[in-house]
Amino acid sequence: MFKFEVHNVIKLAAFISALAVCVTHWHMNALALLLLCTPYLVVYYLATKSNYKNCKVAFLRGVSAIIVFMAAIRLGVYPIGIDAQSAIPFSYFIGIQLTAISASEVYISFFTRNSTST
Q1: Theoretical Cys-Cys bridge with 14: which of 21, 43, 47, 86, CB 3.0 to 4.6 Å?
Q2: 23: closest CA among 10, 33, 13, 9?
Q3: pLDDT tens figures, 29-70
């Protein structure tokens, strides 16, 4: 029987989001494309079964993943124009994504305790 696991859904959404951003912005150089895909790579890396061990941790990482994927809709739909002013929203959305991931990880590391931590 199929068992629903949150981390598999988040991994799939991270992969689809990264793929959508790469397809939309395929004309950019490699460094800019890597910068755009960094939040999705981080979310994909954090989506393991051991990282979703209890409800509080799963909820916090899930909320940050939802914020990342909502910004992915904006980044994936609208291409970057030729002028320099069009890159400002992209840096803003990348900052939002990385801030959401960092804030959830800081909250998890400081406010959740387990028996293996020192």
Answers
A1: 43
A2: 33
A3: 788 788 888 888 888 888 888 877 788 888 888 888 888 888
Which residues touch 89 (CB under 8 Å, ≥6 apart)?
74
Q: Could you tell me which residue, 61 or 73, shows the higher pLDDT?
A: 61
Q: Is the dihedral of CA 39, 10, 48, 44 positive or negative?
A: negative
DSSP-assigned letter for residue 78: S
Q: For residue 81, give the DSSP letter.
A: -
Helix (H) or strand (E) run with residue 20 in it: helix 6-24
**Alpha-carbon span 28 to 106, nearest angstrom:** 32
User: Is the pTM higher than 0.70?
Assistant: yes
